[in-house]
Amino acid sequence: EKKLHEGCIQQMYRMFNDSLFSGEAPELDNQGRIRLDDYEMRPDVQQEVADLWHQVSAENLESISDIKGFRAEFLRHHGFGMQGVDYEADVEV
Known about the structure:
Blueprint: H1 8-20, H2 43-53, H3 61-64, H4 67-77
C-alpha cells in the first residue's frame, strides 16, 4: 500500500546508492548509524502496524497482512520453497 517493501538486496542497494555513494553526507540516527529500517520506523508505518496489531486474528491474518508473501520470502531466504525441487524425495547421506 505504501510501496515501501524492500528485500535484503534492495535495502543494501539503497544503503550504497543513497547513503554511502550518493555524494552527500548520509542521514544518520542519533547514535551515528545508517539505518536500513528507516522505512519501517517511519511514524506513519509504526502507527499503521500498531492499529493492525490490535485487529489481527487467526481468522483474518491472510486478508489483513501479506503472510503468504512473508512465508514465501522466508522460505527462499533459507533455501526452501524453490520451484522444481522435490523436498519429499529421498537423498543419499
